[in-house]
Amino acid sequence: MIVVGAGVVGLSCAVRLLEAGHRVDVVARDLPLETTSAVAAAICYPYRAAPQDRVAAWTARSYAAFDELTAEPEAGVSMLEGTEVLRTPEPDPWWAGVVPSLRRETALPDGYVDGWAFTTAVVEMPVYLAWLGQRVLELGGTLTRLNLRDLPGGGDAVVNCSGLGARLLGADTSVQPVSGQVVYVEQFGLDRWWLDGGSPEGPTYVIPRSHDVVVGGTDVEGDWSRTPAPETADSILERAARLVPEVSTARVIRHKVGLRPARPTVRLEREGQVVHCYGHGGAGVTLSWGCADEVVELLASPVQAHSGRHAAE
Ligand SMILES: Cc1cc2nc3c(=O)[nH]c(=O)nc-3n(C[C@H](O)[C@H](O)[C@H](O)COP(=O)(O)OP(=O)(O)OC[C@H]3O[C@@H](n4cnc5c(N)ncnc54)[C@H](O)[C@@H]3O)c2cc1C
Fold first, then answer.
1. What is the average pLDDT across 38-47?
2. CB of 175 within 8 A of CB of 279?
3. Who's near 143: CB < 8 A, 6+ residues apart?
4. Alpha helical stretches, state H, the chain
5. Binding-site residues, ligand 1, Cβ < 6 A
6. How much is the average pLDDT of 171-196?
7. Cis peptide before 42, with omega less than 30 degrees from 0?
8. Percent of the chain with pLDDT over 90
9. Which ligand 1 atom lies nearest to the CA of residue 256?
10. Ligand 1 centroid vs 87 CA: distance in angstroms?
11. SS3 for 178?
C-alpha cells in the first residue's frame, strides 16, 4: 500500500502498517525534516483538534506509545512535568482523564490565578522524525520524494496523510492553514515545560529540548506565510518571559513558521481503497499513534464496512 505524506502522521501510519505485516511505500513532496511536523514544539496535548471524544481516545493511545518510546533514547522522546497556567479559575479540562498525573498548581507566575501541572511527552521533532523515517526503512518500507497531483490509483490501498495538501489530494477546502511562529533559544537549564493557552496574542509556551528551548507562539487562521516576522518574535519572547524569566536573556538561535493543517474535525475515514487521515490541526503529534492504530484497523476490515462513512463529521 501507499502512504502519501512523510510528516508525523504519514510516518506513524507507515510504521504501524509495516508492523502489521503490510508492504508500504511512503511518497511525499516534502521529506520528514521539511514538513510542518518538523516545526512542531512538540508536547502531547490535544490543542486545536476535534471531535473531542475521538481526540481523547487517540491522545490516550499516543500518550501510552510515547511513554514506551522513552526507553529508546535515539527516538528523542521524554516524559516531562510542566504547567499550564490560567487567567481565570477553570474546572478540570475535558481531556483530564487522558493524562494520569493532572493536579492543580498553586505556585504560579504573576498574573495567573489557576493552573494544572501534569507529565506529558515532549517530542524533539527533528530527532523523532529522523527516527521514524529510519524505522520505516528498517521495517522494509520505502520513502520517496514525489509531488503528486492526485492520489495514486491502480488498485493499491492508499493512506492519505497529506496534511494541508489534502486541499488538493482530498479536494477538501475545509482544510485551512493556521500559522504558528516559534523562536529557538539556547538551552539555559530548563527542565519543565510551560504553557499559557489563553493569551490574546496567541498560545504562549516554553518547551525544553536537549540542546535548545522552543519558545512560541502564534496561531493565525488562514495565514499562508512561512516567513518569520521580527516583531512577532519580540512579542513571543516577551510573553514567554512572563512564564520563564530566563527567556529574556537566552541567546536566540533561529526562527521558524509552520502551517498547521486545521479542519473543523480530523478526517479519519475509509472511502473504498483510500483511508483519509488528515486535518490534525495543532495536535498531529499528539494524535499520531492513536490515528495510526485506527488506520490499521480500517484497512483490516472489508471495504464495504467503511466505504463512504463520514465518521468524523
Ligand atoms: C509552531 C507549531 C507548534 C506545534 N506544536 C505542536 C505540539 O506541541 N503538539 C502537537 O501535537 N502538534 C503540534 N503542532 C501541530 C503539528 O505540527 C501538526 O498537526 C502535524 O505536523 C501535522 O502532521 P501531518 O503529518 O498531518 O502534516 P505535515 O507534517 O504537513 O506533512 C504532510 C505531508 O504530506 C505531503 N504532501 C502534501 N501534499 C502533497 C502532494 N501533493 N504530493 C506529495 N506529498 C504531499 C507533504 O510533503 C508532507 O510530507 C504544531 C504546529 C506548529 C506549526
1. 95
2. yes
3. 6, 26, 28, 31, 133, 136, 137
4. 8-19, 52-69, 125-138, 166-169, 230-243, 284-300, 303-306
5. 4-10, 28-30, 35-37, 39-43, 45, 146-148, 161-165, 168-169, 180, 182, 216-217, 258, 260-261, 278, 280-286
6. 98
7. yes
8. 90
9. 1
10. 30
11. strand
In our burial notation (b when 16+ CB lie closer than 10 A, e otherwise), range 50-66 reads: beeebbbebbbbbbebb
Measured at the CA of 236, the angle between CA 70 and CA 7, to 5 degrees, comes to: 45
**230-278: per-residue pLDDT in tens?**
999 999 999 999 999 999 999 999 999 999 999 999 999 999 999 999 9
Cα 12 from chain centroid (whole Å): 11
Under the banding of pLDDT at 50, 70 and 90, the label for residue 305 is very low
- Residue 21 has phi, psi (to 5 degrees) of 100, 5
The DSSP output letter for 228 is P
Cα-flanking dihedrals φ and ψ of residue 4, to 5°? -95, 120
Which of 255, 248, 177, 242 has its CA nearest to residue 214? 255
pLDDT, residue 310, reads 37
Give yes or no for residue 51 having a pLDDT over 50.
Answer: yes
Strands 114-123 and 103-104: antiparallel
Q: Are 59 and 37 in contact (CB under 8 A)?
A: no
In angstroms and rounded to an integer, the radius of gyration of the C-alpha atoms of the chain is 19
CB–CB of 223/178 below 8 Å?
Answer: yes
- Is residue 220 exposed (0-12), middle (13-18) or buried (19+ Cβ within 10 Å)? middle
Cell representation of residue 84: 499550564
**Cα–Cα nearest to 134, from 32, 9, 66, 239:** 32
Cell matching residue 31: 521529506
Residue 6: in which H helix or E strand, if any? none
**What average pLDDT does the segment 5-32 reach?**
98
User: Amino acid identity of 159?
Assistant: V
DSSP string, 104-118: E-----TT--EEEEE
Atom of ligand 1 nearest to the CA of 10: 25
